[in-house]
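Hi, here's the filled form for the chain we discussed.

Project: internal
Contact: R.S.
Residues: 243
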Amino acid sequence: MDTAKVIKELRESIGMSRKEFSQHTGVPVRTIEDWEAARRTPPNYIPRLLGYQLKYEEVNKINHKLHEKICIISDPDGRKLVLINDIKFKSRKSVDWNKVEQFLKKYIDEYYEILESAEKVYIGTDFPDEYAHSNDTRKAQGANKKAKANAISAIGELIEIASDRNESPDYNKKHGGKAKFGWYRYDTRFGIPVYDEEGVLDRYNIFRARLIVRRDKDRKLYLYDIVRIKKETSKPLESLTVR
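And the returned structure, exactly as it came back:
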C-alpha cells in the first residue's frame, strides 16, 4: 500500500489543506507533511482509521441534511439534485392547482442565481398561473403529477442547480415583449421521499425536469414554467452525498 498517496488522497477528498486536516484529525501538521512526502511511514491501520473517521462524519452530515425540508446534494455520478422533504400534496390523484398557484405567488419579484452560469432568473407575475394551469400541468399523471405539485417548495433550489442551457427563438413572436429575445431551457432534477409501511424513509424517487425561461424585453430572464417532469430512478440513501 502506498501510504503517502492514500493519506494525501484522503485529505484532498474533503478539500482540506494540511493545516485544516491537522486541526480536523488532531494529527500534527509536520507529521502529515512527513507522511505525504514518504519521509515517515505510519502503521498500516492509520490510513484505515482516518478513512473510517471521514466516512462516519460524511454519513452523519448526510443524515443531518436529509432532515432539512429542502437540500441540494450530489448523486454518485456527481450530478446535483434537490431533495424535497416538504411534501404539501400527498395524493397522486387529487391536486388543488389553485392552491399551488396561490403558494407560488410568494416567489413573485424574487430572483435566484444559477450556480453553473451565474445567470439571474427572476419570478414574474405570469409564473404562478402558467405553472399551475399550463398544458403540461393538465397532462401530468400519477407520480409525475404529484412531483410537479410538490416541486413548488424548492423553486429557488431548482433554479440554482439548472444546467445544460439550450436556446430557441420565440416563434411567430407569440409572446411579444415577454419573450422578445426568445427562450432558454435548462435541465434540473429533484427527489421526492418514499416511505415504507411503518412511515420510515426508504428511498427517494428521482425526477428530471426542464425549466422554461423567457428572455424579456427588459433583457432579464424570467422563469415561465417547469415542464417534462418525469420519474428517472430511485436511489438508496447510502448512495447520496451532500453538496
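Let me know if anything looks off before we file it.
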